[in-house]
Amino acid sequence: MARYTSTLCFLRWASFALVTLPRIRGFTIAPQADTRCSSAQVVQGGAFKSYARQIQRRQYAEKRAACSSSLSMAASTGSTSKDIPATPGLALALDNAKRLGNGDLNDLELHRGPGEAQRRRVVLDQAYQECERITGIFAKTFYLGTKFMAPVARKAVWAIYVWCRRTDDIVDGPRAMVRGRKSLQNDLQDWTNRLQEVWEGKPRDALDLAMVDVRQNYPSLPIAPFKDMIDGMVMDVPGIGKNRYSTFEELELYCYRVAGTVGLMVLPILGTAEGVSEEDAKFPALSLGIALQLTNILRDVGEDAVRGRIYLPMEDLERFGIDPENIMNGILDANYKAMMKYQIARARFYYKQAARGIPMLAPESRLPVQASLDMYGKILEAIEANDYDNFRKRAYISKTEKLLTLPLSWWRSLNPGQVDTNIDDSEFKLTRFDRIDMEREVFPAGDPDEDGSD
């Protein structure tokens, strides 16, 4: 499973998001067919589908009635659309009637009056309920963390979480295992186009509609991190992306795309403290995303080796005298332990930078972020407690430990310290990806169907 899935957790823990997502297999919300839909179209869930069909049937009946009425009027008066006052509903009905007469049954629309607005609201509420249901089932800890947020904010974060899950499913769902390179490339491009349509207020299904609503509620929400996350998908595609990283700079870029991006996604939703701009708070958001992803990488070295992946930078393995084959074979020796200490220190540096963002957040958003720092950072302590054996032992934090951490997190959120926008990069290189105009990730050159499928 793509390393990205474990970092969707940034949506849970993130600096500007919340609390951790476990790696989960078999969960798929595949992107829907490229068919434009009304606000009543929905995806998945029996009752939800049934409700959508009822809405669609009612809309279709209303369209027929409108078109029939306009046809009758035109026939009895000999009028054309040019002869009739420009009443929006009537003009639309006449246009529909003309198109029906020509056999054009595509994209007929009703005048969007109060009734349509009400139907849209009902479907939107159903969409958010579906986002909540998905989040509650597949990201329990994160879902619990969202309960600390205001109702509007928590719904927005649920919608973003589901978008990220759907993005991950493109390269990590069951269909991804049997598709060829060309098919996968087309799917990623279509998903990018679909994202742009969401930003233009054109949803293809109800889950897209929820994202459209988030975009309308938070106008400063940037599209760039969403696109960057899609690029992160390419980096994890088996046979196309990377299974080795030569330098830490390469790994840091990956961490940004699959986790740091989430901090930028949810920052407008969490809000900032008085006198602090979103630009000021970006750097801690990026740092926390990188810290969380590095933690995932250190926790899952053994699991990734089974999948043929090594995320630890090759330059670091060489520095500490470790043959990559030792990682694949799970050899735990003094050199490996020394290297792990170094990597843990690096991750903690990013946590330190991320902690500077707590006082920059709106007061009501500080607790979930502080809790993410405190709880997820304990995974590093668990690795140390396991004597750095992340081949045969999984570092985790029990529910009891998480609950016991909350009082301290609450106290810290009430006393976050002073805002400090000075960036400390004296120990490790910190790249400001939000200030770099990066080129979009592309598939490697070569025969797109060399694997024999399309």
Automatic annotation (TrEMBL):
EC numbers, comma separated: 2.5.1.32
Gene Ontology biological process: carotenoid biosynthetic process
Reactions catalysed: 2 (2E,6E,10E)-geranylgeranyl diphosphate = 15-cis-phytoene + 2 diphosphate
Range of residues in the leader sequence: 1-26
InterPro entries with a match to the protein in the record: Isoprenoid_synthase_dom_sf (IPR008949), Squ/phyt_synthse (IPR002060), Squalene/phytoene_synthase_CS (IPR019845), Trans_IPPS_bact-type (IPR044843), Trans_IPPS_HH (IPR033904)
Single annotated GO MF: squalene synthase [NAD(P)H] activity
Protein name per Swiss-Prot or TrEMBL: 15-cis-phytoene synthase
